[in-house]
Amino acid sequence: MKRKVDQKDVGAETSVGIECNENNESNESNESNEAIEVTDPYLISIVNALEQLTESWSAKLKNGGIKLQFAVQIGSSLSVIQQEWLMEFLQDFHVRDQEMSKVLHAFATEIPEWATRQIIQLFRKAERVKAVLIARNDVMDQLEQRMRQMEYDFWQGMLPTDENELEHVLSTWQRELVAWEEEASRERNTYNRTYGDSSRSTMKPPSAAKDLTFHTLIGVPEEADAKQVRKQSRKLLRVLHPDHGGSAYLFTWVKEAYDTYQASRIRRESPTAR
User: Which residue ranges form the domains of the chain, and what is each CATH number?
Assistant: First the structure.
């Protein structure tokens, strides 16, 4: 399959793999109007999708207001009226890049806007709760299992189409997350009483915390081996990382504690220590 496209309508991102039959003797003005022959099926699908964008979305893409991958999704999956609704939705409700695919899927599957907003907020809440409960392996397993089910139902189109039933499902998710959030709040209060308020980066852990082992801090049994400790530490650090919305103070603290644990373990296991 071949497709002729005017050069001025093709973005820089779609230039790879395009065959251009240019005449070197043509003047510059003729070259600017010369057609490009696109033969790559992937590029053809991109061009087709971009041609389906409304004027507003095309302008947003050209101005760098949206990533190409999302523009392609919008053009390939949403009708003109859906694109207009999406534009209005995003003006009223801030969506992060990592949430955009969920929003586009919701619009493509005609999930109501109120439900789309609530679904995004539920996933955000779940991530916040997860960040606090990371050391509670028992509760974390339950929460992660529920999140996987939420993700599956959402992406596989398992949510009810009837709005009353959909509202009931989302309300159930909400109640479950509120219960976990309350559990997380109790964990946070216990943590702050023991270690101090982690939101203040200048604070030092009180002396009472020195009696706790690193195993207790990260939520593994005292008899856990080095492999288990490393796995749980990495899991904890991923959640606490500032780039993932975590606390820079807690991230640094846990990392330093892990480094200290590792150094101590290596010293204990070294031949000279025996």
Answer: 205-274 (1.10.287)
